[in-house]
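User: Last request for today: this protein with cytidine-5'-monophosphate, please.
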Amino acid sequence: TEGIVIAIDGPSGSGKSSTSKGVARARGLRYLDTGAMYRALTWWMLDNGVDVHDSAAVAAAVGRPVIEMGTDPAAPTVSVDGRDVAVEIRTKEVTGSVSAVSAVPRARELLVSAQREIIDAARRECAGIVVEGRDITTVVAPDAPVKLFITASAEARAQRRSKEIRTGDVAGTQAALELRDKLDSSRAHSPLTLTSDTAELDTTGLDLDEVVALVVELVDEAA
Ligand code: C5P
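Assistant: Here's the final one, the structure of the complex with cytidine-5'-monophosphate:
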């Protein structure tokens, strides 16, 4: 029998990473953070002096870095050319440039095919995988038996993200987050969208354990 695929999309700060990891741990599944792959590619572009707003330059360079993902939900990893970049990909510079890189079709083609390989391996080799991002329910794994769109109010998302990055500037964080969501939702190539075959889960006012329990229930129903 083949492993199960759980596809989760949603805007920044919606809690989808923590939820996805929690669900994967609870059910012995692998975990893939596709946002980390776009961030790793963006980090490499910045580190190599590629102008991220020059889409032709980005497209020409996308095949150069080797991006590898570790899918253990207890200790996920991301590396570029053998270097662990877990810390580097969370900087302001990368966060501010990632939407430009992820809008380049050639970058998406390459990462989507890498994501599908990781998903196929998990389906063959273990109980399955939880995959989170912006286009998982629509493009990467549209046939997944469990498809979720996790949201929360902009205020709640800004609060969570501010805690995560340890800043008191909640208003500034909210503005940056809303700008990134606007870019990710309005781009021409696979924008973040909620489609009618995907369940929406608004987590405003819920804590992580409650959200994980809800999603685990959906996974058990589908398994
Ligand atoms: O999930 P995270 O906030 O780390 O994602 C970083 C960025 O990567 C997003 O803002 C978006 O531009 C891009 N992304 C994407 N498609 C995905 C996952 C992330 O375009 N499946």
